[in-house]
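Entry type: protein chain
Record version: 2
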Amino acid sequence: MVSPDILGASAGAGFGAAMAILLSLPFVFIQFSAFLFGILAVGITYFICKLTSRGKDALLILVLAGIIVSSLFSSLITLSKYVADPYSKLPEITYWLMGGLSAVMINDVLMLIIPFACGIIPLFLLRWQLNAMAFGDEEAKALGLNTSRLRLIYIVSATLLTAASVAVCGMVGWVGLVIPHLTRMLVGPNFKYLLPASFLVGSIFLLIVDNLARTMFTMEIPLGILTSIIGAPFFVYLLIKRKKGWL
């Protein structure tokens, strides 16, 4: 039930972009601000978790802290929209938050290479340990894993991927929530195959939805709207048709 942006990365990146738009900064600074605030939001979440968990129920408190931080930055986004010029800044902020690939250029893709590499490579190399981590901290520690260090690596890697994606494409929801469950139905729960398959299936899904957004009507539909329309009912279907041990 947890998506990569549950720790506040998407909401933080959205606020960073909204602030940069309010300040009339160039587009590259909007992307940089979104990326920076996305990382900052997850850093605040992790700090709250370390401050309050004291080694007990760390995963649960991490998720709860993420929900709190996401709510805070979502409120700040709403505040930014409220004070924005309704004829220029407000439409720009609203359109950016809807997400989309129409404004993405080759320079944006090149800019993503470093954060994506820093995020994907550790996840790919350590995906075997995720199988042990799925059983809980006690079982993972019994197998000799340093759960605190691994969890930090996974959080940092997922944050880099999420913040970089939101910085370039805006807030495209439901992909990180639905695709892993769909992929698990296809390849099973073993993270050795599940993680790389999720990368591939998620990319294919996003390209298909983007093509639909561009061709369904005479005007392009923001990508975030269409992924929500498709993702929400499909996730309900996954819940109804779930198989024991997969979801």
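Comment: Residues 95 and 222 are 8 Å apart (CA to CA).
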